[in-house]
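Quick start: what a row looks like.
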Amino acid sequence: MISQKSNDGLLVVKFRLNQFYSIKNSFMKSIKPIVILFFSVLFTTTAITQVGVGHWREHLPYQSVISVAEVGQNIYAATPFSIMYYNTQDASISRLSKVNGLSETGIKVIVASPDQSTLIIAYTNTNIDLVQHGRIINISDIERTPMPGNKTINNITFIEDYAYLACGFGIVVLDINRHEIVDTYLIGPDGSHVNVLDIAFNPNDSHIYAATAQGIYKADINSPNLAHFVYWNRDYTISKPNDTYNHIVFFQNQMIVNRPGTTSNSDSLFLNNGETWNYFLGSRNQRIKKIRAMDDELMVAHYNRIHFYDAGLNETMRLTDYQPGSLNISDAIISKDGTLYTGDLNNALMKQISEDFHFTSIGRSGPPTTDVFAMESAGSNVWFVAGARNSAWNNTWKNGLLYGLVNNNWVAYNRWNTTGMENMLDIISLAVDPNNKNRLFAGSWGRGLIEMIDGAVVEIYNETNSSLQEHTLRPGWVGVGGIAFDDKGNTWFTNNNAPELLSVRKHDGSWRSFNLSPVASAVEIDKLVIDHSGQKWILERYHGLYVFNDNGTIDNPTDDQVKRLTSATGNGNLPGATIHSLAVDQNGEIWIGTNEGVAVIRNPENVFNGGNYDAYLPIIDQDGYGAYLLESETVTAIVIDGANRKWFGTDRAGAFLMSADGLQEIHHFNTENSPMLSNSITAMTINDKGEVFFGTTSGIVSFRTEATSPKPVLSDVVVYPNPVRPEYDGVIAVSGLVKDADIKITDIAGNLIFKTRAFGGQAVWNGRNFDGRRAQSGVYLVFVSNNNGSETLATKILFLH
């Protein structure tokens, strides 16, 4: 057994277990390391608070719950992305995700053991986590075993201490105490695979029953070898014995099964009393989501209602709405204290709060979706858009959605809750006014441009009320793929496939468009950045960059200049076939992300003055050999942090943090070595706290770095965390600093115990003195000065042990 501390100060224990596999009758033997995370201090509440330097947090939607289970005093509610759990004693809400222990995203089902000691989490990729006695145990046997066909874990049933997994190929038996796979049953004819959808056990005849895509199978659990198909028999007494049956339970010595229909209102529920089969609720049922059998009560949950039956199968209650609110149920349980909880696809976890079926929603805080196409920060706030376009740059017709983490609360604006957005589709670009963080523009791929202030739509701009123009081949289609503010308060927009590709809304509210001919007209363009000279850099779909210079005279077109940069030497030297991202660093250099890595234009002012403006390709050391920076990756996003370091997002390798010159790798985050949700990065931004937000194809996560943007003067220095509590073992951040500020930390007697220099606008301290000893309880003084000593400031840190 190997023990080590994680980055969060948590104990990580690795040990090996024997696990059994077989493709035919029993899994072949294999050994795999299992990681256990002790998380007594790991699970976090849903309160959105500042995150410490070097720490991660997830930003996932919680309003769509797909599975519910009770373990101890907690009600667990799984979404497709993560889990929240509600403490029935103190009403606290906590979360569990890949950031704090789970092995994956993509949850399929969660089930609690009968003694409520263990929660099993099955993922869509067939990986498994056990949450047991304050630790998370990963069992990846099924995921790692090569097997043709369907391996999906459809459902889980407990028989004593064994979990029987209903899988796409058969049944897998998991010993939850030994944490290992102990058997596999391939129950189809001649040991063939059959899609098992649910499992039930009848203690009266000691038979295990499997509802499958090919009928109902049963076997005596005491058979000498259940892994051998001859011990499994199909039930031919039921009507249509070869059809699909997806739910099966035993209640009051009777078997109840569901045969799903081809439409949403044609499920058929059958009951077997030990002798004959009969319809239970008839043959025209709304889609049945869950059947749960308690000691003396049966619950049948449809997507839009729940029926309750007593031991005699008489209906006792029916839930048809939440009073107020409609149902979209995925799962439901009755807790030990008799409270009904439903997992709802629209309303998160719903808790019954009165006998007449009034409910309250639990834990809905979070973004409305995992989709993110673009994002932008404004101070500590971060905004996101969830539109899309396909690989041919055509519409996906996604409903317009703009959402944000604003003042530590999630907000969302769409066609259903925001006047003016009723017809908005495919929002793919946005920019926040640097002089008013409550004002923003959001561009759609076809429906024009939104201006929003304080959460209200001020105007929708299109060809009728602005200089924006229609697509040359699609009347009424106005696409805005890039938005940027200049330092004079003007807002610039790219106008895809229009005769005049660039528009500006001046700070006085007037509009003007620009003809980029003869260089460009009616071409497909996208992102836009503005350099330190006021030049506009515009990304073209087919490997090119347009550079436009109005020479500071927006209303005088006679001095406008435009040039198209290409792969040709002497005209850009751009690598790759396509350009995907642009950023301007603190030195004014243009960093360009392509499908073959990164290029840098060091002197952008040379584009129009006759100097050299060919791109430089940074060369890094890679295993002792020189290589172009990220030359084998498509760089989808670039952001610059407060220390001028470069973050690169890629489409398949996660995210990289490189030094300011791009030559040294500082971090490489991917799904294997970090809580990154996907290796495909769609967008990135960094807020004024130094927190980098990563939009991925599986949702949003963020990581707080040690660098923030420097302040112009010393005025509002913040220390976090403060006080430093006994359980905290991370770094202490001193933020709000000027560039190159000096920081000295002393004890109350004036003894110097640490000194450093600001990294951008922030400095970090590990809480130890020069000898490496942790600071003792007490007050410590922080003295800050700028690099010439003309500005000084002092503050305090309190350590508690």
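That is the whole record. Residues 1-47 have pLDDT under 50 and may be disordered. The chain has one helix and 69 strands.
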